[in-house]
Amino acid sequence: MVLEQEVNTAGRIRRVALASAVGTTIEWYDYFAYSTATALVFNKLFFPSLSPASGTLAAFATLGVGFVARPLGGIVWGHFGDRVGRKAMLVASLVLMGLATAGVGALPTFRQAGVIAPVLLVVLRVLQGISAGGEWGGAALMAVEHAPEGKRGRYGSFSQIGVPAGLILAQLVFFLVNSSLSPDEFRSWGWRIPFLVSLVLVGVGLVIRLRVEESPVFAKLRSTGARSRLPIVEVLRARPKQVLAAAVSFIANTALGYIFFAYLLSYGTSVLKLSSTTMLVVVIVGSVVWLASIVAAAIWSDSVGRKPVYLAGSMLLVVWSIPFFLLVDTAQPWLLIVAVVVLNIGLGATYGPQSALFSELFESRFRYSGSSFAYAVGAVLGGGFAPLIAASLQSSTGTSLSVSLYMVGVGVLSLLAVLAFPRKPLVPVTAE
After folding, report:
1. Domain 1-224+231-420 architecture
2. Closest Cα to residue 133, out of 90, 164, 168?
3. In whole angstroms, what is the distance from residue 194 CA to residue 7 CA?
4. CB burial class (10 A; 0-12, 13-18, 19+) of residue 141?
5. How far is CA 358 from CA 81, 134, 388, 396, in A?
6. How many CA atoms lie within 13 A of 145 on its CB side?
7. Which of 164, 190, 361, 378 is found 20 to 30 A from 179 (Cα to Cα)?
8. Of 92, 88, 194, 73, nearest to 133 (Cα)?
9. How far, in Å, are 69, 124, 386 from residue 43 at the CA level?
């Protein structure tokens, strides 16, 4: 009987882990499809009246708008995630993201509809941002709150690998479409295909997510009536230092991450004059390394603790920022791959343990709100306008060194925040 219960428990945890990974992969596929299209074609499709440099800046600005909406999503999804349940919010966020992404694929361009086209693009990007603001928190908590003691980093990594997996999937789809069509065909209609594919992927994700059980931690909160009435207010009152430290710790990871997979595509094709196919391959290789390093870092954190792993990754991001663009500027594909491989090891070390770490900073009654809000604020301050800042620095100074110095600056900022983390979990990942 005991053996049967253990088998059932293990099976349940695996289903939750799979649902977390698959659902998050689909969610971030949608989000990164936009980022990829921004770097490749949105400047020409939605801002054709601007100069190439100004059009690129405008396209990256719409990318940043989605980040501004993420704290709102973190508050909304976090509130209902702490009040109604983790599972329900995961399903709702996935549906919203899928509809918004498919909507981008159906948009008229500037030449077809005039100024209304970029306006609608911004609206849909805001909806993507609201969805992303709550998606991560729900997926992370479902994985971590189901996980057995001593394996929260390992199981929490399933929500984390969805980010590079979604990026890889988006890059592969764009690579296949881009390489199968002529440049004119891709700009005319081919760019829409990756966005419309989202409808199929969301259907798959919904089937998987609807089959998992609610988090046992939230189920206990609901049965005991211990839910917070206003979780975002309570977490900001009870754990303001933890919210601040968590948000700032994420700035470097998301800033350097978006420089890697959004700005680098644009920089490689427009400044270095490399083909979009070459740059997509470079980003895909880096993303695979990112995914593997996330898993390795998360498992390592179960042994040595979250803080040491974070510190190692944060220091690598700071140290590698200058060599990164020195290698990229050679325009040699194999040196570009070296640059992104090392960078992504640092990204993985500062992302793999994140689900477990953030969960261990907040009590369960306001954990969804605290984790989601900190994650979303860090994303805004870091990744929200990182490609725009990088493009502006490169355009105004004429050198990538300015971008590297910006990377060093945000890296040091996050490193200081990591130093403020407790050495051991602050709270138990159980219902209090």
Report:
1. Up-down Bundle (1.20)
2. 90
3. 39
4. buried
5. 15, 14, 28, 38
6. 29
7. 164
8. 73
9. 22, 16, 17
Tell me the two tokens of residue 373.
Answer: 């809000």
Tokens of 377: 């604020």
The owner of tokens 């440099």 is 53
Question: Which two structure tokens, joined as six digits, stand for 6?
Answer: 């253990």
Phi-psi region of 85 (alpha: psi -120 to 50; beta: other; left: phi over 0): left
Is residue 241 exposed (0-12), middle (13-18) or buried (19+ Cβ within 10 Å)? exposed
Give the tokens for residue 288: 């695979």
* Cα separation, 183 vs 171, whole angstroms: 17
The 3-class secondary structure across the chain, one letter per residue, is CHHHHHHHHHHHHHHHHHHHHHHHHHHHHHHHHHHHHHHHHHHHHHCCCCCHHHHHHHHHHHHHHHHHCHHHHHHHHHHHHHHCCHHHHHHHHHHHHHHHHHHHHCCCCHHHHCCHHHHHHHHHHHHHHHHHHHHHHHHHHHHHHHCCCCCHHHHHHHHHCHHHHHHHHHHHHHHHHHHHCCHHHHHHCHHHHHHHCHHHHHHHHHHHHCCCCCCHHHHHHHHHCCCCCCHHHHHHHHCHHHHHHHHHHCHHHHHHHHHHHHHHHHHHHHCCCCCHHHHHHHHHHHHHHHHHHHHHHHHHHHHHCHHHHHHHHHHHHHHHHHHHHHHHCCCCHHHHHHHHHHHHHHHHHCCCCHHHHHHCCCCHHHHHHHHHHHHHHHHHHHHHCHHHHHHHHHHHHCCCHHHHHHHHHHHHHHHHHHHCCCCCCCCCCCCC
The CA–CA distances, whole Å, from 408 to 246, 253, 324, 349, 399 equal: 19, 12, 11, 17, 15
